[in-house]
Write a structure and sequence with these properties.
Shape: globular
Number of strands: 10
Strand order of the largest sheet: 4-1-5-10-9-6-7-8
Strand content: 5-15%
Order of helices and strands: EEEHEHHHHEHEHEEHEHEH
Largest sheet: 8 strands, parallel
Distance between the termini: 11 Å
Structural class: alpha/beta
Bound molecules: N-{4-[(3-aminopropyl)amino]butyl}acetamide, zinc ion
Radius of gyration: 19 Å
Length: 353
Amino acid sequence: MKIFLNADHHRHAGRQEMFRGRMVPCHEVPARLDHVLAELGRRPQGELLSPAIGDATLDAALARVHRPDYLQFLATAWADWVAMDPANAERDVLPSVWPLPSRHGFRTDTPPANFAARLGLYGFDAGSPLMAGTWAAARSGAACALAAAGEVLGGARSAFALTRPPGHHAGPDFFGGYCFLNNAALAAQALRDGGHHRVAVLDVDYHHGNGTQTIFYERADVLTVSIHGDPRTEYPFFLGHADERGAGAGEGANLNLPLPRGTGFTDWRVALDTALQAVTNFGASALVVPMGLDTFEGDPISGFHLRSADYATVGQALAGAGLPTVFTFEGGYAVAEVGINAVNLLEGFGRAV
Ligand code: Q9C
Ligand code: ZN
């Protein structure tokens, strides 16, 4: 399969994230991608390419998924941050004030001019630092996702967007969970726009793909399925429950399969079969897999117990859907093993095809 590499990913390199009242080193680090690349060097899965997507094409695709005011916010966030205080040039951007849901009386209909306040409108956690190169890195990453979708539209069986920052927590107008632009949603929308009438997204990251769910929640043409740690105990906490089935025209086109912290591969695999059955029942003609490897037993921030060898089985099962498939690189914070696990999955997929 063709692999689209985000050569700008290292421009996004947060130093610290807020965790329970203190600043801790970021988990979402450039070395994650570098390890995948190194493992692909040892066990090549296909040609490594740079995406060839022009700025105008990219902007149009971003606007299919994200709101214009949010894109504008991201484009100028770093400049706005430094304009608040020149000393900010030495600090990553993090929100620290939020409006709460509107039922509490705070207004979100009048975007504040104060940048710290605007950060709280668009960001839903204090764990996703933004810096000078974030916008460039995220844009190039989105281009990778679009190029991968283009490859599949051109007849390829599969393609992989090897990019960071990840994307599946980012919504129409919000960032969080280390995500800024929703690469998987961009790929799914590109597949729709390229002629696939029904597209499925099957998110295997440890964390619920809240951004993707929200983007497609009221749509009947894109099925969103997510297997993840139960939000009652796991991030992102406020979405991802089994009773979220879609709304309006999208009623029935969202499936959440939350599993308790501590789940091992046997039970996880049962959920995968349920997810794949839903994809088949939906009648999708193309599949997007937000590929999080934070289900790994050694992951420092997650609670499932998949082993490295299991990822080959996962890849094989995904191939069993028989659909042209776009993979996007999402979570996975056991840095030393993330490359092995990612390539095991891709290899398992490739072997089964
Ligand atoms: N400091 C993805 O896997 N923080 N995002 C959890 C640890 C948020 C994960 C607490 C985890 C976000 C793409
Ligand atoms: Zn995750």
